[in-house]
């Protein structure tokens, strides 16, 4: 098979053959990487290529006056860095905020919840993102458990993301709660 000059079948050098194989393998790998269809959204995408996302953000220990002011601006368009985003705050719900205090008693310790007149607000937000892997709205990633700034041109609050749903059916589910 290999002759005295190191050629395979008397026609091609083994080193040349290895170089050709490496180039072909590299071309196939790069071709698959760059030419395969985009799989970022798949069945989640809408016809415009964006993925609808609905998520909730909990903002704790808010004064009732702040809640009353915020309610006037719901629904409201999200914004960041002075620009409006492709996202809407569609709802806000309030619940009593309780502070827990540990009280020493003769029988041990007792946990007491005290209402100090504050509220916990839960915002429902619907937005469209280009990539459901990074799920960016403005410069913020939307991830359950992550700190999130809820901001419009009228108010700004910091909370924690509680829930998140991706896909075309999430926009309808957010409106049913109203």
Low-pLDDT runs: 171-178
User: How much strand content do the residues show?
Assistant: over 45%
How many distinct folded domains? 2
Distance between the termini: 79 Å
| H/E topology pattern | EEHEHEEEEEEEH
Assign an overall shape.
elongated
Number of DSSP-assigned strands: 10
- How many strands, what sense, and barrel or not for the largest sheet? 6 strands, antiparallel
Structural class of the helices, strands and pairings? alpha+beta
Q: What's the mean pLDDT score?
A: 82
- Range of helix content: 10-25%
* Rg, alpha carbons: 28 Å
Total helical segments: 3
What's the arrangement of strands in the largest beta sheet? 4-5-6-3-10-9
Protein described:
With 178 residues, this protein is α+β, with helices and mostly antiparallel strands. It has two domains: 1-36; 42-176. It is built from three helices and ten strands. It has helices at residues 14-35, 64-71, 170-176, and strands spanning 7-8, 12-13, 51-62, 76-80, 83-105, 108-129, 136-137, 140-141, 147-151, 156-166. It has a six-stranded antiparallel β-sheet, with helices on one face. The longest helix has 22 residues, at 14-35. It is elongated, with a radius of gyration of 28 Å. The relative contact order is 0.20. Residues 171-178 have low confidence and may be disordered.
